[in-house]
Amino acid sequence: MVIGTGAYRGGTAMNNRPSEDEKTVFDVLIVGAGISGIGHAQHIQSRHPARSFVILEAREAPGGTWLTHKYPGARSDSDLFTFGYRARPWNGPPIATRQEILSYLGATIEAAGLSDHIRYGHRVESASWSSAQQCWVLRVADQASGSIRTYRARFLWMCQGYYDHDTPYTPTWPDMERFAGTIVHPQHWPDEMDWTGKRVVVIGSGATAATLIPALAQGAAHVTMLQRSPTYFVAKPNKNELADTLRALDIPDAWTHEIVRRSVLAEQKVLQVLAEQDPDAARDLLVSAIREELGPEFDVDTHFNPGYRPWRQRLAVVPDNDLFKAIKAGKASVVTDQIARFTPGGIALESGQELAADIIVTATGFNMQFLNDIPFDVDGDPVAFHDKVSYRGLMVSDVPNMAFMLGYLRTSWTMRVDLAGDFVCRLMGHMDSIGAASVTPVLGEGDAGLPRGNFIPDEEFNSGYIQRGMPDWPRRIERDPWRYVISYFEESAILPEVDLDEAALVYG
Ligand SMILES: Cc1cc2nc3c(=O)[nH]c(=O)nc-3n(C[C@H](O)[C@H](O)[C@H](O)COP(=O)(O)OP(=O)(O)OC[C@H]3O[C@@H](n4cnc5c(N)ncnc54)[C@H](O)[C@@H]3O)c2cc1C
């Protein structure tokens, strides 16, 4: 169901039960009603139907990223067979628009009967673990009434996303204030923005820029993509022949979803192995498809042949070559250069060139956050997450009964939502079977003195937002179970086999 801006609003009427909530100690409390929170709620429902759970969501509707990002052309950059949930078939083309993703999420909420469990307009402001009560006590701002409420839960599942939804990342350049036109960040795209007949410069080279440019090019006088350095793109038609064949044969949706999901993953695995073992061949494969589309006259090496090896950043799909078609049609162009300063009429570049602009879009990314910067304490002692170590990229050392969600960065995010959902539900079942009320990851003596590094090592993934965000995240030790495994193909073989009686997990 899609209404108005595309936000699903079913369930908002169910929010009038905070006073009952305050008397309850929930078995599980999920923070965030984005793809992760809704995904994990389905896991709880199916694996632990007797457990009580509630989802607290700061916004007035579900969707998270897909509610926040409403710039023209907003769409997924990975396919919905893998970005969709394992248990909910995707029936559309591989790459989905923001509206389609919100509809899919709304339909999932509806089908799973999750509306009653979601409290919209409820922002978690702090989280305190009480050993005496054996539960989390959360301070929650109820935005509608302006009051502060207290929620209690035995297990806290943090699905609040990995970046600041309120403040995007915009670098400052000299003389920005002198620019006479409009500067806009895609994360704060105004509904009334009109780019018809305007000269637009989009600063950035990532998936957001690649998505925005063909959409803006339809009405603008011209769109220039201004990048410091190139990014890899996967140029592909927005269709999946295997899915189309299976659909034409009336194969049940659930089978088609699973089969196509496996085939997409198998294809990605080939590319990932190639990127690791023969990065030059992987580069050739990606860049030659763009070369073919743009023709011999276009300087692909300057604009679309990155300096880093493939897979050290996310590979964004360009569906139906729309970005390259806009370039070929002369509606858009690419400039690879450094910004010297802004001018009243546009941007002066280090090369001496000046780009004329009426609108400058800063598609420069977001500010990564850990757990939405919510203050946590355990029995009154504040938790400094950067001094802790992550347990399997899902829990934090010395923090009881708390899991957090970071999806995959190379494979679709949701592949990890399902894998983590399996793990956390298995952990809860194990706690039941041994009569434990709490589980805390604790570093053994042998591990405590080992060198610690970034949660995501730079040599694995080097996007700017990761490098900026890492200092606030828990650390990593280069040994299981103290590392976040960045590859789905590696982690999917590890997580389901984890011995829940391993020494790192201390039950109470
Ligand atoms: C523009 C963009 C495009 C992307 N495209 C893809 C893609 O194609 N494929 C892919 O795999 N990944 C993509 N990603 C990564 C993307 O963020 C994830 O795939 C996914 O949507 C994240 O879902 P989430 O539920 O974990 O977090 P979010 O979508 O960030 O949702 C978190 C929710 O938690 C709520 N929340 C936060 N703090 C609090 C609090 N204190 N109290 C209560 N509620 C709170 C927020 O309001 C929000 O609704 C993209 C990211 C961006 C920014």
Give me the secondary-structure topology.
Blueprint: H1 18-23, E1 25-31, H2 35-47, E2 53-56, H3 65-68, H4 80-83, H5 98-112, E3 118-119, E4 122-130, E5 135-142, E6 147-158, E7 163-168, E8 182-184, E9 199-203, H6 207-217, E10 222-227, E11 233-236, H7 241-248, H8 253-277, H9 279-294, H10 300-304, E12 316-319, H11 322-328, E13 332-336, E14 339-343, E15 346-349, E16 354-356, E17 359-362, E18 366-368, E19 376-378, E20 381-382, E21 390-391, E22 395-396, E23 402-404, H12 413-434, E24 439-441, H13 445-448, H14 464-469, H15 488-494, E25 505-507
Parallel strand pairs: 1-2, 1-6, 2-3, 4-19, 6-23, 8-17, 9-10, 9-17, 10-13, 11-12
Antiparallel strand pairs: 4-5, 5-6, 7-18, 14-15, 15-16, 19-20, 21-22, 24-25
This protein binds flavin-adenine dinucleotide (FAD).
Flavin-adenine dinucleotide (FAD) is lined by residues 31-37, 56-59, 64-65, 69, 76-78, 83, 123-124, 159-161, 165, 208, 366, 372, 374, 405, 407, 412-413.
